[in-house]
Amino acid sequence: MNKHTTIRSFIVFSLFLFLSSSILFAHRDYSAQQVIDNVYERPTPEDQKAELIMTLENSRGDQRVREIQQYIKDDGEETKKIMFFTAPADVRNTSFMSFSNDNEKEDSQWIYLPALKKVKRIASGKSSDYFMGSDFTYDDMGERLPSEDTHTIIGEETINGVHCIKVESIPIEKDDMYGKTITWVSDAYWMGLKKDFYDQDGALLKTLTVTDYENIEGYWMITSLKMENVQKDHITLMELNNFVLNSGIKDSDFSVRTMTKGIR
């Protein structure tokens, strides 16, 4: 931002910013907090299962592909997720489970590594570690509450013909792994179509892009996305197929025992 050497120029500049902002957002009736709340509260099925293909690509273009079966159950207050790696052989039978509560900032997470024959709880201090060689941290694999950040609308843009509101979110906790994020939110679907993650030094760390989505049984579901770590020159692609919604997945299926045995 330019610095002004006189009080008059500062007032004129501030007035210009105020008028520009008023014109830009005059037709919007919602605040930044409402935009983020609408994304968080977008209708979702009570439960869902899907096949997930996760592709890891390094700077040389070498790829490693993981096949995963994913189950999610949401009772309105708590979201439970369990993922079973089914291929290739070196990760088969590995499983990951996450519980995200609407009233708690920290998720409860566990991972089962068959080579150790032991379920390990992910300590809160490990939430910034990367999940199974991907560009998603354990913290990214859970849900982030809107109340964990302060939100500001910083502009509007169109992504692939879809109007989006740009929201800057700054963590309230100073020791958060991210310095800030910027999310492009579609106000037609209340879905974040792109998100930039910045590190604590203010440098762009990675970008999450939703590359495809569709309406399945009345719910807007993400079917393809890409996370690119620009500092490591590494990419994670995720494709979700064969959704089955509201099939009555039992609450008891989300347990440490299930992680070692699978859902039957």
Notes on the structure:
The N terminus is likely disordered. The radius of gyration is 21 Å and the shape is globular. It is built from 4 helices and 13 strands. A 13-stranded antiparallel β-sheet has the order 6-5-4-3-2-1-13-12-11-10-9-8-7. By secondary structure, it is mostly beta strands. A hairpin with a 2-residue loop joins strand 11 and strand 12. The longest helix is centred in the first third of the chain and has 19 residues. The relative contact order is 0.17. The chain starts with 6 loop residues before the first helix and ends with a helix.
Q: Which secondary-structure class do the elements indicate?
A: mainly beta
Number of helices: 4
Mean pLDDT: 89
Please mark out the parts with pLDDT under 50 across 5 or more consecutive residues, or reply none.
1-27
Sheet with most strands: 13 strands, antiparallel
Helix content: 10-25%
Could you give the distance between the termini? Answer: 59 Å
The neighbouring-strand order within the major sheet is 6-5-4-3-2-1-13-12-11-10-9-8-7
Strand content: over 45%
- Indicate the overall shape: globular
Whole-angstrom Rg? 21 Å
Order of helices and strands: HHEEEEEEHEEEEEEEH
Care to count the β-strands? 13
